[in-house]
TrEMBL record:
<dbReference type="InterPro" id="IPR050706">
    <property type="entry name" value="Cyclic-di-GMP_PDE-like"/>
</dbReference>
<feature type="domain" description="EAL">
    <location>
        <begin position="235"/>
        <end position="489"/>
    </location>
</feature>
<dbReference type="GO" id="GO:0071111">
    <property type="term" value="F:cyclic-guanylate-specific phosphodiesterase activity"/>
</dbReference>
<keyword id="KW-0812">Transmembrane</keyword>
<keyword id="KW-0472">Membrane</keyword>
<dbReference type="InterPro" id="IPR001633">
    <property type="entry name" value="EAL_dom"/>
</dbReference>
<keyword id="KW-1133">Transmembrane helix</keyword>
<protein>
    <submittedName>
        <fullName>Diguanylate phosphodiesterase</fullName>
    </submittedName>
</protein>
<feature type="transmembrane region" description="Helical">
    <location>
        <begin position="206"/>
        <end position="231"/>
    </location>
</feature>
<dbReference type="InterPro" id="IPR035919">
    <property type="entry name" value="EAL_sf"/>
</dbReference>
<dbReference type="Pfam" id="PF00563">
    <property type="entry name" value="EAL"/>
</dbReference>
Length: 515
């Protein structure tokens, strides 16, 4: 996907369409939560102020009471003044211990009409300062608290960095901050005091939020598209690189010897794929086999390896008609009629592949539901001299059912069992059962992954026919394999001849040589 102007515009439009409902939903939730939090905080502040004055005297205060009252006011940032009145006259305040000033007519009117506590905003008749007036009932008279209105305005303004709000009485009169025109808002009514908190967002704030979120979504979408492009490009480049490598014969066969446990001779080999990248460096199969199996390119690679095997086989078999070479095939490969036809044609055109060729069917795929079709495919290859091996027996799908329904010539025992056969009693017992099963089915048994002499001796004791692993040799190129095979088999023959000559000299025929 290339970033044309049209596509970028469409991506930006998509980002806006996604960001708009998200922004509105988010701001609604924020406004709702913030209005509730402000109301709770304001309730707490007012209750604290009320509880601090209710114990004050309801008559002319003494010096101690006055000192306590003055200290209370001076120690508070929000409380500006406190006064007490009875019978519509102030008795005292924090600034004067003896007052006989009448309360304002408006306050008298409020006391008659409104429920206590009273809460409103106006200029005080005592000090002519804009304040919040909180009036609560005492035993005989009333306490009037004058709260610093500008301080409360600042407090509410700084309650949130983004959202703004104001507080009004239940009648809609302003208490804290001025009214604002919001695109939308949320309100919360106090259950204790006659006010409600309104928090909202202006059009400019909503637009800013939508723009910010749209930009984030746009950038995120761009990154996702770039990542997808990168993955697709890499996959395309990989497939293209594989096609180039097949064309340039960069996939080469490596051979790992299979040794007979009875004669100790190399009687076969497994063909393994290596990638000689640009004929410069060797790449191991674990770096590419999984990918080429998943995208289907394993099929042309396998055909290429079989063509190379038709050339190599006479050289590595060296006139040994019993020598065989095995190569892996998967269920998906066998289910491809075109691939099957191509392989059959290749075998027919190359007599060297019509004898001593074994296909190892891997158990990475479930064969349970494909037995009938698979058996027919296997029979087509059998008519051309191909034998069949079940690879990694015991670790894949439906091993026993595969053996029951399909006629295999060879069972390859996975190295998982070989590695712990000499140390784990359970694994040793399983291996013994596999060996018995192989004999019962008249299948040759090949143990993979043999690395130590102890493992080899254990397998010999179980009468496993053949072994394969690093104990003998790692997979090697054709030339190295031929050299190793020749040296190995010659050494075995020399050892056996030496033993036979010794027996003749002593006129004694000893037990069968066990090397």
């Amino acid at each position: 996907m290339s970033f044309t102007v049209k596509k970028m515009f469409q991506l930006a439009l998509l980002a806006i369409l996604i960001a708009t409902p998200i922004t509105f939903t988010y701001l609604n939730i924020r406004c709702d939560n913030l209005s509730k939090d402000i109301a709770i905080a304001l309730n707490k502040t007012l209750n604290k102020r009320i509880s601090s004055v209710l114990h004050l005297p309801e008559n002319q205060p003494d010096a101690k009471s006055m000192h306590e009252l003055v200290t209370l006011v001076l120690s508070s940032r929000s409380l500006r003044s406190v006064a007490y009145f009875q019978n519509n006259h102030y008795i005292y305040s924090d600034r004067n211990a003896s007052l006989h000033t009448p309360i304002s007519p408006s306050l008298i009117e409020r006391l008659k009409k409104d429920k206590l506590p009273l809460l409103y905003r106006k200029r005080s008749s005592l000090n002519q300062v804009d304040e919040l007036h909180l009036v609560v009932k005492g035993t005989k008279g009333f306490y009037q608290l004058f709260i610093n209105a500008p301080y409360m305005d600042d407090w509410l303004t700084n309650a949130d960095e983004y959202l703004r709000g104001y507080v009004v009485t239940n009648k809609g009169n302003i208490l804290i901050n001025n009214k604002k025109n919001y695109l939308f808002h949320k309100s919360y009514h106090s259950a204790q005091f006659p006010f409600k908190v309104i928090v909202g967002a202006k059009s400019s704030q909503v637009l800013l939020g939508i723009c910010a979120l749209s930009a984030f979504i746009f950038i995120l979408c761009m990154l996702i598209v770039l990542i997808i492009n990168y993955i697709q490009t890499n996959n395309f480049s990989f497939k293209k690189d594989i096609d180039r490598a097949i064309k340039n014969n960069e996939f080469i066969p490596y051979y790992q010897p299979i040794v007979c446990n009875k004669t100790h001779q190399i009687i076969g080999a497994e063909l393994l794929c290596r990638w000689l990248y640009r004929h410069a460096r060797l790449i191991s199969p674990n770096q590419f086999i999984t990918k080429v199996e998943s995208n289907g390119q394993i099929k042309p690679i396998t055909l290429h390896l079989l063509k190379q095997l038709s050339i190599d086989k006479p050289l590595i078999a060296h006139s040994n008609k019993d020598f065989y070479v095995s190569i892996n095939v998967t269920l998906s490969m066998l289910n491809d009629p075109r691939f099957v036809d191509d392989v059959i044609l290749l075998i027919k055109q190359n007599p060297t592949l019509q004898q001593g060729l074994v296909f190892e069917m891997t158990e990475r795929e479930n064969t349970t539901n494909a037995f009938i079709k698979l058996d027919k495919i296997m029979q087509r290859f059998r008519t051309l001299g191909v034998r069949w091996a079940l690879d990694d027996f015991g670790t894949g799908y439906s091993s026993l059912s595969s053996l029951k329904e399909l006629n295999f010539d060879i069972i390859k025992i996975d190295k998982l069992f070989v590695n712990s056969a000499d140390t784990d009693a359970v694994t040793s017992s399983i291996l013994n059962n596999i060996a018995s099963l192989g004999k019962e089915l008249q299948c040759k048994l090949v143990a993979e992954g043999v690395e130590t002499e102890t493992q080899l001796n254990t397998l010999k004791s179980l009468l496993i026919d053949y072994t394969q692993g690093f104990y003998f040799s790692a997979p090697t190129s054709r030339c190295d394999f031929i050299e190793f095979k020749t040296e190995h088999n010659d050494q075995i023959l020399k050892t056996m001849n030496k033993y036979a000559n010794r027996c003749v000299a002593l006129k004694y025929h000893g037990p069968t040589l066990n090397i």
